[in-house]
Design a protein that fits this description.
Blueprint: E1 4-6, E2 13-15, H1 42-49, H2 55-60, E3 63-70, E4 75-86, E5 89-96, E6 102-104, E7 125-127, H3 130-138, E8 144-146, H4 159-163
Parallel strand pairs: 7-8
Antiparallel strand pairs: 1-2, 3-4, 4-5, 5-6
Length: 167
């Protein structure tokens, strides 16, 4: 009834059919404009340096900076911009202001941050946030990715799992 089988020898449960992506072809997503973000200024770079993140890591992981309207404050704010790429396509942007308010680009597809880094690896490290990915990259662990919307207990949208299944 559930499409699952159980081995009565080792009591392991397994799937009996191939998983098919739900609704992937039905959805239309909005892509952010690449010109949105500029390289971080010295003030932002200094802020990252106090957290042990170098400018090289910011460049490696396409971290930018720019002005963005933040609904939490109701005005334009200078934001750190985490650019979410799949291949060479900008898929989404997460904005973070100085008060630790966050937002994703409206209508964009949800994918893992830094998903390109796991190509060629058999395993990856999945983290709660972009800052964790930056820290691991700084420490030499390159195959780290982050969920786009943190680890919330309640209504967590897990579309990014379907959207990144091929990776």
């Amino acid at each position: 009834e559930r499409g699952l089988g159980t081995c009565h020898n080792c009591n392991t449960t397994f799937q009996l059919h191939t998983y098919q992506r739900k609704g992937a072809s039905e959805r239309t997503y909005i892509r952010p404009e690449v010109i949105h973000s500029k390289p971080p200024t010295s003030k932002v770079t200094e802020w990252f340096n106090t957290r042990g993140i170098s400018q090289k890591t910011l460049i490696d992981l396409n971290v930018g900076e720019g002005s963005e309207y933040m609904p939490q404050t109701g005005r334009q704010e200078n934001t750190i911009q985490f650019n979410y790429f799949m291949g060479d396509q900008l898929i989404n942007v997460k904005y973070r202001d100085g008060r630790k308010n966050f937002k994703l680009y409206k209508g964009a597809e949800k994918v893992f941050y830094n998903i390109n880094s796991i190509v060629g690896y058999d395993t990856c490290v999945i983290t709660e946030g972009e800052m964790d990915v930056l820290a691991l990259h700084e420490a030499g662990i390159k195959n780290a990715i982050s969920v786009p919307n943190g680890a919330t207990l309640n209504s967590n949208n897990l579309d990014y799992l379907d959207n990144c299944i091929d990776y």
